[in-house]
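Now for a concrete sample entry.
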Amino acid sequence: MTSPDRSRHGRTARHEPDDDDDSFDTRLIWAGLFLSLALFAKVPTIDLIFSQRYYTPEGGFFQANNPLVQALYQYTPMVGNTLLVLSALMAVGAPSLAKLARRQGRDSTASLLTGLWRRTAIGVLLVATLSSGLIVELGLKNLMGRPRPVQTIEFGGDQAFHGAFQRGDNPGSHRSFVSGHAAAGFSLIALGMFAGRTWRRRWTLIGLTAGALVGLGRIMQGGHYLSDVVFSFYAVWLSCELVAFGMRRFEQRRQAPPRAPTAT
């Protein structure tokens, strides 16, 4: 289907998102979610098998002090917080910056500031609040109470292993499910929410790569299991879908012409 924003030559107007259908990508991600739910529910020991690759009885999690692993652990929150601050500044300051740009004759930049860039900034803030804030930290971590690998008997701790969907009784100390650090990496996906299909895919790949690397580092440290990282991605991705849908509906309603009063 041709996008309504396309010109007669079939190209997207400058600075306007390319709205080519990417339903196949979405179906693929949904399929991955259902497969992951079934796999980790049926074979929860996958988590143990994967974490055992980075553990020895003599040395524990032997990559825990790897400089790169430590850097990912220490700097991921800093990068995530910086992105949130920049997004907040863009969301608040974009109208003023757009006025300045128009005075300088940079109308295309002004349109981006009040359009795509500001919309993306607001979306990033909403996704971070919903995913990392509500779903991950306040929701799943407090609800599930899953012991971390280093706390379980199989890896030198004193707690029994809990599968991904098995609730524990001490969420104050056992907060493995899901990974907050990995969620911060996956949140880069939100930067492509309102872009065209090409840039949506690029930001999805960037976010997937970042979240996977950060998540792998946490697994190597004994801080999380594989399933903690996998479902951290889905917490972020579902948040992106909800926020993008909600913001589009809000804009459609705001731009819709007022209804004519009905005759009585």
The chain has seven helices and two strands. The radius of gyration is 22 Å. The chain has a mean pLDDT of 91. The beta strands are 55-56, 60-61.
